[in-house]
Amino acid sequence: MNSGPTVAKGGRAADAMSERFTLARAAAACGRRVRAVALLLALGAGVAAGAEAAGIKAGFAERDISPAIGMREAHAVARHVFKVFHDPCKVRVAVFDDGRRRIALVGLDTLMVPRSVVQRARAGIQQVCGLAPEAVMIAASHSHSSGPVGIVMPGQFDHASPEIQQLAYQESSLADPVYLEQLTREIIEATRLATTRLTPAHLGFGFGHDDRVAFNRRQKMKNNQSWSHAGAMNPDIVDYAGPTDPQVGVVGAWDADGRLLGAIVNFACHATTNPGGISANWPGEMERTVQGALRANVPVVFLAGASGDVTQVDNLSPYVRPDQKTWMQIVGGRIGAEAVKVLLSAPRGTDAAVAARTKVWNIPRRVPAPERVARAREVIAAGKPKRDLTEWTFARETLLLDAILAREPAVEVEVQALQVGPAVFVSSPAEYFVAYGLEIKRGSPFPFTFPVSLANGCVGYVPTEAAFGPEGGGYETRLTFYSNLEITAGRQFAEAGLGLARQLTPGPVPEFPRIPAPGQPWPFGRVEPQIR
User: Fold this and answer.
1) Residue-wise DSSP of 497-510
2) Is 259 helix (H, G, I), strand (E, B) or coil?
3) Nearest Cα to 223, choosing from 479, 473, 475?
4) pLDDT in tens, the chain (532 residues)
5) How many angstroms separate the CA atoms of 267 and 383, rounded?
6) Full-model pTM
7) Strands (E), 222-307
8) Nearest-CA neighbor of 305 among 55, 38, 107?
9) In this structure, are residues 243 and 491 in contact, taking their beta carbons and an 8 Å threshold?
């Protein structure tokens, strides 16, 4: 996307989004404290080539990225702003160093992360921490109760007609340049802090399981189409139109004394349990569950799995849905409890290599048919209706897509694989359908494979190719300014991710110590029964 230096006419100048702001402010914030550290780091290597590894090190940190009261809500137009604060939104970072290489996993409590923010944050991290850009994964939790990071970027439609600018800047979800500056700055600072906290660590890996809080939101209907959220107990529903992924992936890190340093949790479910006001959504409740159960106030980095078609809403349930706050507690509490079980029971080890692979390329956008564009112009010209906005909303999206195609006919995408011992994190920049995440897990050579969606950019929904077929359909397949990549994009992401993962060699899975020899019976237990 083009994140140009200006906003819509009458808006604020977005010169804060220039390349200078991140690096200059990050350097000022870090100051002399990190200069010595930066000199010791060689572009993510940590030590000179050929040196012997001394075991894995881990460092965790977090920073507050809560939007201000009065800022736009995520995924909202101008009139929808935050009026109350519920719980903080954060950036959380895990850094791992095996003595030869260093990687960072960054989790954001945001709806998405613009590609421009990723690039500027990585540049700042490289300057301040010495980490190579390809060794840093930055992913959004997809919290719908977070700050204004998109979908339209400041200045993106300055080339268009006044009518299109009105639709983009006043009738669409628009990123706030001040908030983007805050977000970028705090990503850099959190990564710096995590790097300074690197300490020899024992790592544990595992999977929890929960199949009661996440459901495929697409239903197969009697008319052979697939609809998104067809309505609770709609008699025309035949079945779910797709699977879910019940695995709760967990990585934990402890110091030599057994104190928890931090954890990473990976799960596939939309963060749409909006409690009212500013909130990290259910991933924040998940973190609080882990912290409370283990009595450890440490960062829990959440990385969303492939959950483009998975939410907490079960359209085949006959029961009344809970209120949003309760729903947030249920989803976050249950996933947090699974993480706690893994952290308590997983064997730990210090032998864990780290590595990074990435692939960047361009994928063309789909082009709306001329008659669809003409009809969209008619709908918009007729005025915005007061009630059902469905046709008007998709007409707006069609015209925005038509306007951006002249400047951006293709989208830069990145797929990344970061290794931590026996685990690999495989990214996509999409609201990625869960079937692809399951495919990546099946095809990966790693015993612990964690698909990470909405990472290193955002290209909207990427469904399976079958979803575009005769029995497909639904909200996620509509052609919009937000979701418009060619229908093979999901297959491209999966093949790229698996290709990168297969370039890496899984490390050993930690095991509990084995007993040296068979034990002897307990003398008090080696007796015959007594009746009298």
Assistant:
1) HHHHHTTS-PPPPP
2) coil
3) 473
4) 333 332 333 333 333 333 333 444 444 444 433 333 333 333 333 333 333 345 999 999 999 999 999 999 998 776 789 999 999 999 999 999 999 999 999 999 999 999 999 999 999 999 999 999 999 999 999 999 999 999 999 999 999 999 999 999 999 999 999 999 999 999 999 999 999 999 999 999 999 999 999 999 999 999 999 999 999 999 999 999 999 999 999 999 999 999 999 999 999 999 999 999 999 999 999 999 999 999 999 999 999 999 999 999 999 999 999 999 999 999 999 999 999 999 999 999 999 999 999 999 999 999 999 999 999 999 999 999 999 999 999 999 999 999 999 999 999 999 999 999 999 999 999 999 999 999 999 999 999 999 999 999 999 999 999 999 999 999 999 999 999 999 999 999 999 999 999 999 999 999 999 999 999 999 999 999 999 9
5) 42
6) 0.90
7) 226-228, 237-240, 247-254, 260-267, 300-304
8) 107
9) no
Specify the length of the chain in residues. Answer: 532
| Structure tokens, 398 | 């069609």
Secondary structure of residue 260 in the 3-state scheme: strand
Which among 225, 301, 302, 318 has a CA at the least distance from the CA of 269? 302
